[in-house]
Every structure is written in structure tokens, then in C-alpha cells.
TrEMBL record:
Binding site residues for dimethylallyl phosphate: 164, 180
Descriptive protein name: Flavin prenyltransferase UbiX
Function: Flavin prenyltransferase that catalyzes the synthesis of the prenylated FMN cofactor (prenyl-FMN) for 4-hydroxy-3-polyprenylbenzoic acid decarboxylase UbiD. The prenyltransferase is metal-independent and links a dimethylallyl moiety from dimethylallyl monophosphate (DMAP) to the flavin N5 and C6 atoms of FMN.
Listed EC numbers: 2.5.1.129
Similarity remark: Belongs to the UbiX/PAD1 family.
Keywords noted in UniProt: Flavoprotein, FMN, Prenyltransferase, Transferase
Transferase is among the record's keywords: yes
Keyword Flavoprotein: yes
Species for this entry: Paenactinomyces guangxiensis
Lineage of the species this protein comes from: Bacteria, Bacillati, Bacillota, Bacilli, Bacillales
Length: 199
């Protein structure tokens, strides 16, 4: 397996487990991951995983730094980071979870932080950008922004777990969404049982 380079960004929507599951699987398989976490996402990590946000990136390295792939953490305000430039070669970027505020700014080409700038770079360089929105219900502005980004070339993967594989634990539903993202990235995995039809 050849090592690939991905940007994984977490914004302030509920659904931190999706991002952590994807991050862990990519690193476990030996891929290089550049990580960006917004201030709102840190709040979500505190609420959904009881992380102490004062420690910041140290928490990621404690949990995922011993896996096969290299992990690079970029502060959200570091607009001069390597991933902010089109000259930074990258296989794809995933925003997981993606808040509606982040999605709206990307759709409008606003680059007020490193996540938004990196997503803008992916669009302008015609590189794969995957957004995993987690919100319900959706109003027309949300839908219009998603349609706009889809037309610009982004892939929209709403956090909508399936039930045909009869999940019995939350983790199985989390793995399903992370697995669907990995499918789009072209990364083989066994995070969920695929539908093979009924006899």
C-alpha cells in the first residue's frame, strides 16, 4: 500500500466521533494526516468525549501518535501553514463533522481561518474535498450551499447512518459514516459490512 497524504478537519458540529474514527483508521493504515480543529470543534470534543481542551494537540498525539502514519497538527489560526498553499500536494481533504457555518463560508469562498483557506485551496486546485455535514432539519440556505459546493466539485456526505447491517452499538453507526468517506478516498477498509443482496 502506498502512503497517501490527507487533510482532516473537524469543525463545530455535533459528531466528533466521526472525525476521530476517520483519523484513527487513516493513521492505522499508515497514511499521513494533517489535522485542523476549530475552536468550536474543541468545545464539541469536550462535550462529546470529555476532553480537556487546555491540552489541545497533546491529546491527539497521546491517543493517535503511536499509530503507523505520521500526524501533523496545524493550529486553526496559522494561516501560513503548509496546507494553506496550493503548492502543498495533498490527495484529499475531509471536513468531518462539518458545521453549517463552516460549509457556508467554504461555499462563499471565505477564508477566515486555516480550515476555510485549506478547503478553498482544494477547490481552486480541483482536488477532492469531502464535507460531512451533521445538522437537522435543513433549511433552504443549507441546501443551497450544499448544492453550490457539489456543483463546484465537492462531495457531500451527510452523516446519515444506514441500518441494513443491523447495528447494535453507536460505534457501528460511526464506523459506517467513516467507511463511506474512506470509500470516496479510495482507501480500503472493513469498518462496516457491505450490502450483498438477499436471496
Amino acid at each position: 500500500m502506498s502512503r497517501k497524504r490527507f487533510i482532516v478537519a473537524m469543525s463545530g458540529a455535533s459528531g466528533a466521533p466521526y472525525g476521530l474514527c476517520l483519523l484513527e483508521e487513516l493513521l492505522r493504515q499508515g497514511h499521513e494526516v494533517h489535522l485542523v480543529v476549530t475552536e468550536a470543534a474543541w468545545r464539541v470534543l469536550k462535550e462529546e468525549h470529555q476532553w480537556e481542551v487546555q491540552q489541545r494537540e497533546q491529546l491527539f498525539f497521546e491517543r493517535y501518535g503511536n499509530l503507523s502514519g505520521p500526524l501533523v497538527y496545524h493550529p486553526i489560526k496559522d494561516i501560513g501553514a503548509s496546507i494553506a498553499s496550493g503548492s502543498f500536494m495533498c490527495d484529499a481533504m475531509v471536513v468531518i463533522p462539518c458545521s453549517m457555518a463552516t460549509l457556508a463560508k467554504i461555499a462563499q469562498g471565505i477564508s477566515s481561518n486555516l480550515l476555510e483557506r485549506s478547503a478553498d485551496v482544494m477547490l481552486k486546485e480541483r482536488r477532492p474535498l469531502i464535507l460531512v455535514p451533521r445538522e437537522t432539519p435543513l433549511h433552504s440556505i443549507h441546501l443551497e450551499n450544499m448544492l453550490k459546493l457539489s456543483r463546484y466539485g465537492a462531495s457531500i456526505v451527510p452523516a446519515m447512518p444506514a441500518f441494513y447491517h443491523q447495528p447494535t452499538e453507536i460505534e457501528e453507526m460511526v464506523r459506517f459514516i467513516a467507511g463511506k468517506v474512506l470509500d470516496l478516498l479510495g482507501v480500503k477498509h472493513d469498518l462496516y459490512r457491505r450490502w450483498e443482496g438477499r436471496q
